[in-house]
Description:
Blueprint: E1 2-7, H1 12-21, E2 27-33, E3 45-46, E4 58-61, H2 68-78, E5 82-84, H3 91-100, E6 105-108, H4 114-130, E7 136-143, H5 153-165, E8 171-173, E9 187-194, E10 200-207, E11 212-219, H6 223-236, E12 242-244, H7 246-250
Parallel strand pairs: 1-2, 1-4, 2-3, 4-5, 5-6, 6-12, 7-9, 8-9
Antiparallel strand pairs: 7-10, 10-11
Bound molecules: nicotinamide-adenine-dinucleotide and ligand LLHOTIJI.
The ligand O=C(O)C1=N[C@H](C(=O)O)CCC1 binds next to helix 5.
Amino acid sequence: MTNVIIHGCNGKMGQTILELLKEEEEIKVAAGVDAFDEGKNPFPVFSDIRTCDVSADVVIDFSVAPAVDGLLQYCVREHIPCVLCTTGLSSEQLKKVEEASKETAILKSANMSLGINMLMKLLKDATAILAPAGFDIEIVEKHHKLKVDAPSGTALALGDSVSEVLGGEYEYVYDRSGRRKQRPKKEIGFSAVRGGTIVGDHDVIFAGADEVITFSHRAYSKAVFAKGAIQAAKFLKGRPAGLYDMSDVIGC
Ligand SMILES: NC(=O)c1ccc[n+]([C@@H]2O[C@H](COP(=O)([O-])OP(=O)(O)OC[C@H]3O[C@@H](n4cnc5c(N)ncnc54)[C@H](O)[C@@H]3O)[C@@H](O)[C@H]2O)c1
Ligand SMILES: O=C(O)C1=N[C@H](C(=O)O)CCC1
C-alpha cells in the first residue's frame, strides 16, 4: 500500500486524481493540503503542508507556485518523496527544487502525459535535422481561461528539449510587440492562447522555405495528467534522493 498526500487536493487536478484513486486499491490518501477547504473530503485536510502531521510515502503536488517553497521544506524535513507537477516556478524556486532533491526524491515534470514525454524525444531528432537546414522553430500553446502561468510549463519543457540539441544558443522570445525587425535565426518564439475549457494543446512548428512541419499534442481530459502522476507516485515510493522526471517512469 502507498500512502499519499495530495497537495492542492481541492483544485481541478487534485479532484481529478481523487476520482481516479477510487479505482486504485494500492494507493490510499492519507491527507490533503489546500488553502481552501469545505470539509467534504474523507481524509484530514491541512491549510499548509508544514503543519501536516500525518505520515505518508509520497506527496503528489498540483497546487500553486507560491506554495511550492513550503512543500519543498516539508519534503526535505520529513524525507518524503514528491511528485512535483505545479508549473510557473521562478528561477529561484527551480534552484530550491535542485537543492531539495539532494535530500529527498523529487520527480518534477511540467506534463505527466505519455504523449508529451514521447514528443520531447521525437523533437530532438527533428531539431538535429531541421534547425541546421534553416527551419525556424515556434511553439504555440492553448489552455483554459483559468490558467495563471504563461507560457505553459509544457511549452517551456518542449523548448528546452529543442534547445538542448542546439547547445543552448537559441534565445526564448515571449513578446514581439515592441520589436520592428525580422526574427533572428537563433530564436524560439512562444505564443500562449487562453480561453474556455481547453485542457492543453501544444504545437511545435518547424517552418522552412516552402514547407512546414508541425508536431501537435492535444490533451482531451485532465485524466491523462492524473494517470501519469499516480504512475509517478508508485515509481517514487522508497527511491533515494535525486531529481527524477517522467522519462525515468516511462523508461524512454
Ligand atoms: N504537470 C502536469 O502534468 C500538470 C497538469 C495540469 C496542471 N498542472 C499544474 O498544476 C497546478 C494546478 O493546476 P490546477 O488546474 O489543479 O489548478 P487549480 O487552481 O484548480 O488548483 C490549485 C489548488 O491549489 C490550492 N492551493 C492554494 N494555495 C495552496 C497552498 N498554500 N497549499 C496547498 N494548496 C494550495 C488552491 O486552493 C487550489 O485548490 C498548476 O500549476 C498547473 O499548471 C500540471
Ligand atoms: O491546466 C494546466 O494548468 C496545465 N498545466 C501544465 C502546463 O503548464 O504545462 C500542463 C498542461 C495543463
